[in-house]
Amino acid sequence: MSRFHNLLAVALVLVPLPAGAGKLGLGRPALPAEIRAWDRDVRPDGQGLPDGKGSVAQGEEIYQERCAACHGDFGEGVGRWPALAGGQDSLTDDRPLKTVGSYWPYLSTVWDYVNRAMPYGDAATLSADETYALVAYILYLNDIVTEEDFVLTRENLPSIQLPNRPGFRDDDRPQAEYPLFRDHCTKDCKADVRILRRAENPDLTPK
Amino acid sequence: MSEREKTVRTRRTFLKGSVAALGGAAATPALAGQLPDPAITEVQPWRRRLGPGVDASPYGLPSPFESHVQRRNVPWLTAETRSSINFTPLHQLDGTITPNGLCFERHHSGVAEIDPSRHRLMINGLVEQPLVFTLDDIRRFPRENRIYFMECTANGGMEWRGPQMNGVQFTHGMIHNVMYTGVPLRLILQEAGIRPNASWLLAEGGDAAAMTRTLPLEKALDDCMVAFAQNGEALRAENGYPLRLLVPGWEGNMWIKWLRRLELGDKPWMQREETSKYTDLMPDGTARRFTWVMDAKSVITSPSPQAPITHGRGPLVITGLAWSGHGIITRVDVTLDGGRNWIEARIDGPRLPKSLHRFYLEIDWDGRPMLLQSRAIDETGYVQPTMKALRAIRGENSVYHNNGIQTWHVRKNGEVENVEVS
Predict the structure, then answer these.
(1) Which end of chain B is more exposed for a tag (fewer CB within 10 A), N or C?
(2) Residue A122 and residue A120: Cα distance in Å, rounded?
């Protein structure tokens, strides 16, 4: 074998990284300005909220201009666009209406989501102050605050409780369902079988 | 050849063929009166002329005769297509792998059309060193190939209150199953150094919705991956090009597409998609949250309303799909009589955890009406429940996690409708 081949063999043996090795040294440090540009998420305890403030009255103005076309003047939702207000005490109804006021557990989520994804089609354009004002206005539309001069700020946002805050519990399928779903009878499992319902409306299924 | 020549020629060939058939009739009485098949006796155009050369279609497409095999949207469901969903045509597919172009789509702000040279993946939060990766960096990590199903949590959501959609594409088509190539998420996180107090991970997309979900760090370090390829080629833009998070066995919404950021923290973020959406309203007015796992489920894809029986009585292949977010499917049963008696179906093809399984039951159909159902059992012993059993616990106001048994009513004429039985 030539000397060249020998060298190649040595190199090939040395190159593979041992499985479970430590860091590979890939990537580069993220700069503080880069993290600030992308890390805009907000948690219920207020972590992530920027400085700023906005009132119900200011929010109403922005809302009429940038949100009402889809979400309706009163947050009732135009056509199929989502409603942002109403539905209080409807969660056990036949047709519950889930909105910020009736269903959402945390106000921080409203701030985060509006700032992140709205207005639909023109995202990432709202300033912190505008977002505080819009969230204040959504509270007002849901009768959670009642004064037009109410001002939402970084400081008071985490302390505002939405009505349905206690309405959630962790997944309990492992206790409530899994033990029940273990039977797989194969012979004469029921006496009689009838058709109870059919997909009757032909307009629902696309042709 | 002109149209006229063709007709004449066809007619002559046809007549000649008939004579030949009559001649043979004496020998085989069973075939008396049967005309020879012009598909055989006529020279077909593709038998005679040269077809397109290589490169006629540099990126190949299905035969034009398959152009009806398409993802479909249900227009009345949503306000418009950029915040909407379409459905995989399960009734037209076989095997377990979904072709890339038929993987259902769910977007919240349309398809992000990302220039990969301007895509970055950032890791920040409770890490020793926040990092930024380019796609080239990601390709320098050790890779894995894994086949997983990805099911939208709302798959079957329209059926909670009873049968609505006459088509398995619409009742079950928010699912696909592809082979992903990517990097274990664990390796990428370790690169930044996970701080001991980190217990949750926020994943964020780079689309106009900047879609976010929180997942427990334990899952992130278990089998999650950051993928850049599906079925051997780059991810499709609709499915998250150039990077997507995989959260095997868990609800589809968590599989953040167009993945641009991972943040470690010590509490869940309670984002819109884990509070307003993807929570399950129960009859008492409270809601379950963090219902991440997709429980075992199955459905017969053919026959089904969009795939009726057209061949009459005799040999019939009943086929369908089964899957579980808890692992592999150990058994699929099929009933022809609405659940009175069940027969074990044959699972064929790969049996991989958190991946679609294909099952078959071959029967000799006597032409009688059938009430077809399938029932999946997974490696934990969980048996796919009936809709009735699910509603008894969850009521009718649920949207998500409908894994109830589906019934297809096959009529004498082979037509199939979506029904619910006692």
Answers:
(1) N
(2) 6
